[in-house]
Structure formats: C-alpha cells, structure tokens
Write a structure and sequence with these properties.
With 170 residues, the protein is mainly α. It has four helices and no strands.
C-alpha cells in the first residue's frame, strides 16, 4: 500500500485593509475647508435663496383617520395686553400661596410618639428580674452572682446601643 502524501496545512494570513477615500481632503485656500466664514456664507446664502419646497405635503384626505390633523377650538379667547380679566403669573402665584394654607387631600401624618423608651425599660426590667431570680436560686455561689451583675451591665449596654443606636424611631 502506497503512503499518501500529507496535505499541506492551511496557512491563513490577513490581507491589509484597503480604504477608499470618499471625500477629498481640503487644501488651505481652496474654499472647501470648514471655517466660521464659510458657515456664515452658507447660512446667508440659504436665507437669501430659500428652497422652493422642502417636501410635498400630503393632502388631509389621503391620511388615515388617526393621523388626520385635529381642529382645536379655543374655549376662551386670548386676552389682550390691556385686558382686565387676563390671567397673569402674579395672580397664579397669589392663588397658590393662598391655597397652600388649606389642608391637603393627602397631608402628611403627624409624628407619632416613640415607644422606644417604654420598650427599653420593659426589656431591661425583665432582664433584671431574671437576674434577681437567678441570684435567689444560686445564692451560695459568689462567682455566679458576679457573673450575673456583669451580665446585667452587658445587657444594659447592648440593649441601649441596639434600641437607641441601631433602630429608627418606631
């Protein structure tokens, strides 16, 4: 059996990109460089010679019913400059200031008194009563009584920090 030759491995190489220039570069003095003078000249030219029509208007009959222009009828005629019944900004401001004293529909509720102090005293009293009961049970052991006094101090400090330091008013 004849040995087949190994196929040549594919070697891929990236071709250099070619860019086709769309615009020609402007040279100084040829009049195509963007400058403030050129922008003003084009604006002046556009003001002097407006285009005939920007686009053709579609007649209203050709538009679908949802896109037809609506006719707006004025309910109150526009007031003149010397009209006494005209609404002014000062009048609106005065009405707003006068109306601000009235109770609002959704006025904020007054602040409730906090119950933190009551809860603190109840929990602290419960801890002291439980320590007193433990003292009566373990009355003969002075080490337990010292530990209970330390526990009462620790509970008082932690409870104070937790209720007044961490918690919001409730």
């Amino acid at each position: 059996m004849a040995e087949e030759p190994k196929p040549e491995p594919l070697r891929l190489a990236a071709e250099p990109r070619r860019y086709d220039s769309v615009d020609t570069p402007s040279r100084p003095g040829d009049g195509t460089a963007i400058s403030v003078r050129l922008i003003h000249a084009k604006n002046w030219s556009a003001q002097q010679h407006p285009p005939a029509s920007v686009g053709e208007a579609v007649p209203p009959a050709a538009l679908p019913p949802g896109f037809a222009p609506r006719s707006i009828e004025a309910v109150n005629p526009a007031p003149g400059a010397d009209d006494a019944g005209a609404i002014t900004v000062d009048q609106i401001l005065r009405q707003n200031r006068a109306g601000s004293g009235e109770p609002a529909l959704l006025a904020p509720l007054p602040a409730r008194p906090s119950r933190r102090r009551q809860d603190f005293l109840i929990i602290l009293a419960g801890a002291c009563v439980s320590a007193a009961i433990d003292t009566l049970v373990f009355h003969g052991n002075p080490a337990v009584q010292v530990m209970l006094l330390v526990a009462i101090g620790f509970v008082t400090i932690v409870l104070t920090w937790f209720i007044y330091g961490m918690m919001d008013k409730y």
